[in-house]
Amino acid sequence: MLRVRAPATSANLGSGFDTFGVAFDRPADVVSVEKADRTTIEVTGVGSQFIPEDPGKNTVGAVAEALDAPAHIHIDKGIRPASGLGSSAASAAAAAVALDELYDRGYTREELVPIAAEGEAVVSGDAHADNVAPSILGGFTIARDDGVTCIDANVPLVACLPEIVVSTRDARRVVPDGARLSEVVETVRNAATLTAGMARSDPELVGRGMDDPVVTPARARLIDGYDGVREAAFDAGATGVTISGAGPAMLAACRDETDSRDVALAMLDAFADAGVEARAFRTEIGDGATVL
Asked: Biological process (GO) annotations (predicted)?
């Protein structure tokens, strides 16, 4: 038996739609695999009752098929499904690393990213690598069709997860079909700023680069209390605030550990003022999937 831990992630970071991703140090999924004649799946943990165990409908089943690696797979969910924290991606990432090692397929971590992304297609309908890349590789990642760039960065983050559900498919439906040239220019400018900030581990630049005039405003309408939570986070010292992935989690960049504590409390209070229960994760940018 092999066990692999894969962390939660945040995709997009505002200005990097379907491109940017970052690994957290917590929470995480743990996937255990054993060789078998056919793939079977068992799911326990947070939200496990909502996750199908049919291999044809589960992200890890697609990964096992892509690797030609049938196994009994146990997923211990630490990341709530439909959270915007890369729940399905973490399971797919952990399964890809575990099954590759179990069957000695010999793939590099970078080569496992598109394989794990095939698992994501089961959930979202498209094989996006923006969550699976950081969950496998760690750090801040830039996912392209021709590969992934990974940057080690040290920026304190807060992820605040309200007790509401926004599915990835629903969040993609509200994305505008086009953008004005001025919005494209602003997005490129912000994405470049964010990337420079990650390369320098500069929370101020990272925060300034999170703004997005196209996708985030459309998705914000799906999150009760979004505007108030965003304002409260800035008032408490956040350098930038955006939606984490497809939502409903919200992501804030912070200057230091003291600010991250104040920001987390402010975001929780603002959600409470909107009548929404929530929980917050204070995290550093973490490592990728780890064999236990």
From this structure: threonine biosynthetic process
